[in-house]
Automatic annotation (TrEMBL):
Residues 308-368 form the CzcB-like C-terminal circularly permuted SH3-like domain. The gene is czcB_1. It comes from the Bacteria. InterPro entries: BSH_CzcB-like, CzcB_C, MFP_Cation_Efflux, RND_pump_MFP. Keywords: Transport. It holds the Pfam family BSH_CzcB. Residues 91-226 form the CzcB-like barrel-sandwich hybrid domain. SUPFAM superfamilies: HlyD-like secretion proteins. Belongs to the membrane fusion protein (MFP) (TC 8.A.1) family. One of its GO terms (cellular component) is outer membrane-bounded periplasmic space. GO terms for biological process: copper ion export; plasma membrane copper ion transport. This is Cobalt-zinc-cadmium resistance protein CzcB. One of its GO terms (molecular function) is transmembrane transporter activity.
Length: 374
């Protein structure tokens, strides 16, 4: 009886164990769908060169996009150059009449606008010219009155018409004399009553030379001030012999930090010592643009068809390859690109990306790590 009881107990334990296993298996087979959802990044099932990244994880990775735009200019060459004012942008302000400096209104280094007073000079010639103008005006009044009187007498037949014509000619001549003296005083900003005239800036720019002091004398041949035109500079570079004939006027140039201009002239004579020709470009003023400064001149030329411009941050290096991550449906494609150099903060791509495609400009490190882990 005892052995029979042990046997029955063993069978019951086995039956209960089997029932428990069946129940667990059934529960595992009916797991909630949430446990079977796809992960945000599934690189194993993605096509070669494609990274599958959903929108929310992409935002969490800090990924930002920018469009690729068609590029018309690409870096061509970098040459050493010197910044200088253009030949036609430096103006000497001459003292028209000799005299004594009464006041100076600007100093070397000041920025001036066109027509701004620079100095006041007392001059005997201006005083005499003012007196001559006063006398000429008096003569003009008499001549006009006389011409009007004789003209009336001529019309009445009292005097010959020739006398009236002579008086009219004298009035015209006197009027021309008044106009000439007044024009000269106006040109030099002269004041006949005080016998002084004012030097003014003929152009807007910066005072680069100021050889003038209060109390000193000036003559009519000196140039107390020299002004360099504002916002205009010339860059003189040395173009290697191999590039002569390839660079031409109108090509885009750039100087750091992103100051742009255009080539204005290219020399045709090779310097035997440096084996280079001269190249000139005109640029605008900007930070660090100072006459006499040595710099590097980046010359750009037309790009081949299909070239695009993207932010420089979009370009990455992976396993010795130059790549760009391009946004695609459901993720990003790793594109091999051919770089055409940089144009300021923009990179020029000659192949690999089309105009209008969205490229990754932030978060490239995370995508690069994901691509290398595949």
């Amino acid at each position: 009886m005892l052995n029979r009881s042990f046997i029955l107990a063993g069978v019951a334990v086995i039956a209960l164990t089997l029932a428990g296993l069946w129940w667990l298996t059934t529960r595992a087979g009916t797991a909630p769908p949430a446990a079977q959802s796809s992960p945000p990044v599934d690189s194993a099932s993605a096509a070669p060169g494609h990274l599958r990244v959903e929108a929310r994880p992409a935002a969490q990775l800090g990924i930002r996009l920018a469009p690729a735009v068609a590029a018309s200019e690409a870096p061509f060459a970098i040459v050493p150059a010197l910044i200088q004012p253009p030949a036609n942008a430096r103006v000497a302000v001459a003292a028209t009449f000799p005299g004594v400096v009464m006041r100076t209104l600007v100093v070397e280094g000041d920025t001036v606008r066109r027509g701004q007073p620079l100095a006041v000079i007392s001059s005997r010639e201006v005083l005499m010219m003012g007196a001559d103008l006063t006398r000429a005006n008096a003569r003009l009044g008499v001549a006009r009155s006389n011409a009007a009187r004789l003209s009336q007498l001529s019309r009445e037949g009292i005097i010959a018409g020739a006398r009236a014509d002579e008086a009219s000619a004298i009035a015209v001549e006197t009027s021309a004399d008044v106009s000439e003296k007044a024009r000269i005083l106006h040109m030099v900003n002269g004041h006949g009553a005080s016998g002084s005239y004012t030097l003014t800036a003929p152009i807007a720019g910066r005072i680069t030379t100021a050889r003038i002091q209060t109390g000193n004398s000036v003559d009519g041949t000196s140039a107390p001030y020299v002004i360099d035109a504002a916002n205009r500079y010339e860059v003189l570079g040395q173009l290697p012999e191999r590039l002569v004939g390839l660079v031409h006027p109108g090509m885009l140039v750039r100087i750091d930090p992103d100051i742009q201009g255009r080539v204005t002239a290219v020399g045709s004579t090779i310097d035997p010592a440096t084996r280079s020709a001269s190249v000139k470009a005109e640029i605008a003023a900007g930070p660090g643009i100072v006459a006499g400064r040595a710099t590097n001149l980046l010359i750009s030329g037309p790009t081949p068809a299909g070239a695009v411009s993207v932010p420089a941050a979009a370009v990455a290096t992976m396993n010795g390859r130059t790549v760009v991550f391009v946004a695609t449906k459901g993720g990003f494609a790793v594109r091999d690109v051919k770089s055409g150099g940089a144009n300021g903060s923009q990179a020029i791509l000659l192949s690999g990306v089309k105009t209008g495609e969205q490229v990754v400009i932030a978060g490239t490190s995370a995508l690069k790590a994901l691509a290398l882990s595949r």
